[in-house]
Amino acid sequence: MSILKNYLFIFLLFGANFLSSFVFAEEVGETQSIESLKVGESSGDVSEGFLSVEEKSEAVIPTAINVVSKIPDDAEQVTVGNAFINMYRGPGRGYPIFHVAEYGEKIWLLKRRTDWVKVLAAHNKTGWVRVADLQNIYGEEGELVRVSLPDFRNVQAGFFYLGLSYGDFAGANSLATRIGYQFTANLATELRATQAVGEFSDSQVYQMAILHQPFPRWRLSPYFLLGAGLNITSPNATIIATEDRQDTVMLAGIGIKTYLSRRFAIKAEYTNHYLLTSRENNQEIVEWKLGFDVYL
């Protein structure tokens, strides 16, 4: 009986070992198949997910979205070709530098004030850059973009312009208006009308003048003018009745102008009016004035 119990105990022991080894082998197989499945998923689905993340990261760059939302329709996108470009808080060297646009960075040209350009860079950095620092910028197709200085190179031939000036006309306050036409970069013609109000007499002067600008590309560009017209003098006498006088007037002068933008220039002018009177002596009148021109 004891022998039978021993055989039964040995049989149960072998059966348990066999069953446990079978179960262990099945679990290992399942584990290996699961691990191989996970590897397969990682080599397929996960990589696809990684690519989609990269695509999304390129599409949702915060700076790009923020920049695009603030770009005007007339802004021009360029790429920085310099090693770096300093961006100032305002249009002047006295403002601090707060950002640097590096080589290869894209910026947008927003607007211009004299020889400064307002730009928009990454991270919504908006500041001012000198025109002189924008000599190596490139367009979307790789072409070199030139930002010229505000001089006569921006005012081509065939432009009309209007002007207004205030000054001194032989001691009287004068207000002058003019309309001009720019034939070439060097030559223009003007129709002028001046009203001078003095203590003893008032004057109205109507003239046509030719202007020659020998150095139109200079920042401070001088010019010379010659002209002729009519001068009407109205005395302010109250005791003795006087009549208005009309005299032919010749005009010669010199001036200087500077362009603040493509369509706006300021000028200072000195002119000599020579009146050909019917009296014994002709009269000479000196006029100083300061004004501006707006190109249409």
Quickly describe the structure.
This protein has helices at residues 2-59, 62-69, and strands spanning 76-80, 84-88, 97-102, 106-113, 116-121, 125-130, 137-138, 144-145, 159-169, 172-182, 187-197, 201-212, 221-235, 245-261, 264-276, 283-295. It is of the alpha+beta class.
Commentary on this structure:
By secondary structure, the chain is an alpha+beta fold. 22% of the residues lie in helices and 48% in strands. The chain has two helices and 16 strands. The chain has helices at 2-59, 62-69; strands at residues 76-80, 84-88, 97-102, 106-113, 116-121, 125-130, 137-138, 144-145, 159-169, 172-182, 187-197, 201-212, 221-235, 245-261, 264-276, 283-295. The strands form three sheets. Strands 9-10-11-12-13-14-15-16 form an eight-stranded antiparallel beta barrel. The protein has a six-stranded antiparallel beta sheet with strand order 6-5-4-1-7-8, with no helix packed on it. A two-stranded antiparallel sheet has the order 2-3. The longest helix has 58 residues, at 2-59. The protein starts with a helix and ends with a strand. Mean pLDDT is 76; it is low at 19-68.
Helices and strands, with pairings:
Layout: H1 2-59, H2 62-69, E1 76-80, E2 84-88, E3 97-102, E4 106-113, E5 116-121, E6 125-130, E7 137-138, E8 144-145, E9 159-169, E10 172-182, E11 187-197, E12 201-212, E13 221-235, E14 245-261, E15 264-276, E16 283-295
Antiparallel strand pairs: 1-4, 1-7, 2-3, 4-5, 5-6, 7-8, 9-10, 9-16, 10-11, 11-12, 12-13, 13-14, 14-15, 15-16
